[in-house]
Here is the input.
Amino acid sequence: MLESLYLNLGQHDALSDAEKALLAGAMTFERHFATGQDIVASGSRPTYSTLILDGLAARYKVLENGGRQFTSLQVAGDFVDLHAFLLKTMDHGIVALSPCHVIFADHSRLRAITEEASHLTRLLWLDTLVDGAIHREWIVAMGRRSKTSHLAHLVCELFVRLQVVQRTNGMSFHLPLSQAELADVLGLSVVHMNRVIGALRKVGVVNWANHTVTILDWHRLQEIAEFDPTYLSMMREPR
Amino acid sequence: MLESLYLNLGQHDALSDAEKALLAGAMTFERHFATGQDIVASGSRPTYSTLILDGLAARYKVLENGGRQFTSLQVAGDFVDLHAFLLKTMDHGIVALSPCHVIFADHSRLRAITEEASHLTRLLWLDTLVDGAIHREWIVAMGRRSKTSHLAHLVCELFVRLQVVQRTNGMSFHLPLSQAELADVLGLSVVHMNRVIGALRKVGVVNWANHTVTILDWHRLQEIAEFDPTYLSMMREPR
DNA sequence: GCCAGGCATTAACATTTGTTAGAGTGCACT
DNA sequence: AGTGCACTCTAACAAATGTTAATGCCTGGC
Here is the structure.
């Protein structure tokens, strides 16, 4: 059940069986969310953190003019709101972008982990630090990359992250995002989003149809994106 | 010496004297950096984390075309690279934007804190989570705010953060950033940065001269920015 | 099979933002 | 006082991006 979490945390450092048991023991009940449903509401003060077992979700903020911006995409094995364990109040919402199967980890049990299992605590902390590293990469992409490069970077990042939790299929992966939703990731209008996707298709490095992305030329895609996976900390080493 | 750190961490939850002593015990030597010097190099693997005692620094990445993007601004009381304690490898650089007085905290002693002081560990973790929350707010600003609103938001954020560590003077604060550097924060060209600053000046909510920002109409500035400080977690509560 | 609704795509035009170039300003150094 | 330099500010034009609107395609419900 928690395989994807073990794969996600375990990519950074070895996870012992005892630690896996502690994580499993922190879990409470499961739940399914339909596409478009809010998994966590902005302004709420959750007493548990949500782990995605399967599906795609996103953090987002909505502005007064109605504009929406996604600040992260979350896949299987990701805690969507582990930060709320200490931040307490959600300053943004989390929405299901596909049918999502999730399980909730109780904050009081996470707290017990911080008191009794320092190595596991560091791994959970690290998980939120990688989140932050991804945020920084998005800031760079939004500020200084061309839009084509930004999109290419997103494809690279998602491919690598999905590969860790075994949700890729060869060089393909499922990306159930409409162009309007993608526009809310890159901060573009829908029309321009369409142009940018067209441009990336035109260079021939990806095939993008039916919500499935197939990478045709990984090397060239990585070049266009200037993608360097260092920020994902995928090296297994003592933490 | 560590007053600004105590103020920064202590805004979220009470810091005991014992915890202050643990923090002080983690510190090793101090150092001064001149404006423009790199405090931490991209790609390095530091064995200590850097706390700013005074000055302004920034995290940044440089792209192949020479473009630079700042991903955060760090003020007194901030650890600029606490994340490197667990991420290990720096995927970005940190540069001094003013003369910086810093002190280094040894990673082995931080590790000891995670093993012996769970509440303090949570506060340090929280510190990095607030970092992440600020990143998300920047993503929203870059993607969906007008440039004027983005700039106004930055001014609000810096004012509030500097107030916590007592680096404001009434409604003024020192902001030693050239327009070119500011452009690397917002992801704009220098020319357009100049236009945007002009626009914010024109509405009359700030006075901006000699690297000093004075907020003339806080209420209106906050409105332009749609600034909601929730993300900074400034409420003191058990963590 | 027909229809309604969501989504992708394109066109025409408006607005924002970037680029290049140059003028003005203040300050450190001689 | 004169010079050089970094920074601010402006102008003119080019390129990127947004807006509005329309078209076509697919799919689920009937």
Remarks:
- The first strand of chain B starts at residue 27 and ends at 33.
